[in-house]
Amino acid sequence: MIKIILAFTLFLITHTAFAVDPTRNWQTIETDHFYIHFVEGGQTLANKAAGIAENAHNKLSPVIDWTPLDKTHLVISDETDQPNGLAIPFPYNRSVLFVAPPDTTNSLEDYDNWLDTLITHEYTHILHIDKNTGAASRLRNIFGRHILLFPNLHQPGWLIEGLATYHETDEEQGTGRGQSSIYKMMMRMEVAKGIKPVSQVNIRLRSWPTGTTPYLYGVHFYQFIEQRYGKQAIKILIENYSNNILPFRINTNTKQILNKDITELWDEFESWLKQKYQPQIKQIEQQRVIKGEAITQNGYFTRDVQSLNKNQTYYLRQGAFKYQALMAIDSKGVHKEITEIHGGARMDVHKEKGVLLAQPEYCDEYNRYYDLYIIKHGGNKLKRITECGRYRSASWSADGSQIIAVHTDKGISQLHVLGEDGKKQSVVWQGKDNEVVAQPDWSADGLHIVAAVFRSGTGWNIELFNITTKKWKKITNDLFIDAQPEFNEAGDSFVFSSDRNGVYDIYRYELKQKKLIQLTRVKGGAFHPSQANRRSPLYYTGYSANGTDIVKLDEVNNLNNEAIKNSAVKQKVKKIYSKAKVSKIESYSPWSSLAPRWWFPYFFIDKNQTELGFSSSGNDALGIHNYFMQLAYDTENQYSVGNINYSYSNRLQLGTGRSTDIFLDTNGNFSRARKDDEAYAVLMFPYTHEKYRWNFLLGAFTSKTSDARLATLETPAADFKDNILGAAITFDNPRYYIRSISPNDGRAVNLVAESNDIIDSDYTGETYTLDWREYLPLGGEHVLALRFAEGYGTKQPKPFALGGEENNFAALDVILNTVGGDPLFGRRDYGLRGYDEGLPQLRGRRMQLASIEWRFPLGLVEHSYMTPPVGLAQYSGSLFADSGATWQAGSSPDKYYTGIGAELHADVSLFYGLNIRMRLGVAKGLDNIIGDSRAYFSLGASF
Q1: How far is CA 433 from the centre of its chain?
Q2: What fold characterizes domain 293-558?
Q3: pTM for this one?
Q4: Where are the domains positioned within the chain?
Q5: Which of 45, 208, 241, 867 has the most beta carbons within 10 angstroms of its beta carbon?
């Protein structure tokens, strides 16, 4: 178990999911503390990042009291339209920065320079996790950057993400999530509902606020420590934990520094949160809450409502138990699913032309951009009108003949006018660096665009763009965040969301009177407003302790009127970024970062084997080249063993290895040791869509088994060769929802053809295998899982074998040359629950297997322990029946063997963030001769 978990952790860190597009021409510049890698043409952005990164180092290094021994690699990526970043300390310090700036109120909107906020956050991770002192430092001098020698990595996510979010926050500047109205809103509603215990926050949550939890609770916790114990306490806590060679001693650390364990601190933290937020809740209630009625109960990420009239109201559903979808509400208030959509979609509705959707889609295997789609009223099919357009938001013209769309490339915004067919007609505006346009809406007269516009110094304001003059006019001009404006049908006013009173509420702006009118007063938050005219209901997205839902306010009254003053307003404190001294541009080379940075001893000893060696791994800065090795010498049998595996992005896998099989005689004494020499190469040609994935693979495999050591008087056995050339097609589109206990719907299909005749082999003939897995939703978290597998071999191939309990534990896909958790090529063993492995009745040249499972939820637990770092996220069960057969010749077998049983599944959290499914089952084979009653434990689901 320990070996699997460690290998799984290494796999996660070195996996090619962190790779960028290898087909681009990558270049590199160097500063005092960083290597910066970027695509040709991105030098301006790279130089900007260089200055910001050096400033971040100068600011953060003294605070955390750490300077890495080697330079940090920064990869500037523009391969997605969604803002994000990641920091990877293993095998060296590396950060990937996705430069598309935030363009909506989703908690990342509070910045003055996106790259500054992003680099500050990610470089905090680098310094924090890389920091090591005392015994940890001495051991790292010996073993290098082994994953166990990063003390600060072995903490709950809320302590790691919380620190980075704490340092990204600048109260004076008014930037960062730690001071944002969104985070205050979320924590305000957490306080109203009840603060989560630390035993729940320690693990990855499926309950709301799910993935935001470690950031939200973490930053508030560090702010609490600062206020109660001082900034120095944070620094000392980090310092003290950085020499910890026994991981997960979280309570010991706080006990030593603050004289309280985490549980005691959490009680104090909870009281601090109540003192901070309950007065604001009480003040809103005393002012009288003005809100509508929630007309959906999905929670989570349901959003973006738009209403033209009582027959044309649409919204985007994204709850915890169903796939995201475009929804319509008819005149009777009935909600109807129109079509499934992609996560992160945005929409605009035209009364005649239909719904215009902007949603992410794969442009190619590495680039994922927003494109535009149209769905007609009354229809349910999406028509894609752009390809790789990079249009994050868009709006119809009043007559529906044109579309105004925001195009973003390398962080620069443009306004494009498109035809209704999606073809670009003109570029009417291009922004400068650090200018972002979002959520445009076209006026009824066709002369103006209203949009949320970000400019450095004043942040997000509502501005009008004149189509004729190509000029912007500010409507609001302050430091509040104004977002999601929408014109009414007359075009003489618009509604929008703003945090100008400390809480996101809905406002209307009257263009002629230049008056601002507050329409709601909510405890949570109100976003994405839509009101066809002043007499129509106001729809908006309302935030509660369960996430967001669609809210309808039938009676809309003016809470107050005020004039917008466009006189000089307080500006954000302007940051000055000193330019970094950079080297000349060089073509990117992977060689400088490919050398292994760690090693660890490996040994395996029993009375017939003594394997002594080491393991290591590495990858280049772009994550394109990845390798893992475990090499040893068997002193008992006197030869080398181990394996070396290499992958190039998601295109090529190579590997070779040697292992030992020990055979005993009937008395249990040593008989022979046979060494298995193996090598493989797999070429992959993937095609990825947002909803499904195809992969076409070509593989070559060779193995040779031969005697290595014989007991006295033992007869030598012949060498055995198994050489395969194969081709495979895989397809998969199973869907997991936030609260899934299993793939909820979709299928995974593997079709494999192999030959032993092309390369000399002791097996002969061709083998064809089909493995089809289907998942049918039964409502909620209940799933009917079906599987059918069939294998057909000609001549004398390696036989198929049924029996035992297989699993789909997919931790080592790259290392073990597997796809979807199971070996794709050369696979002959399949599980048949209720029957032992190796039975002669279940071996043959042909095979059929069918399974049916009812999978059902049992409970969402979300409870963990600080030490040991183990928790239970949820548990579920299944009832199953398997039936299978093998045979040598003919079209069908003489007999099928059936087994039935039940399983208990536990989604266990290890080390605060590693989620593994553990399975405990009982099975009964119904055959009177070879059937068995079996109890078993395994990792992963059955399929």
Answers
A1: 28
A2: Neuraminidase (2.120.10)
A3: 0.94
A4: 154-288, 293-558
A5: 241
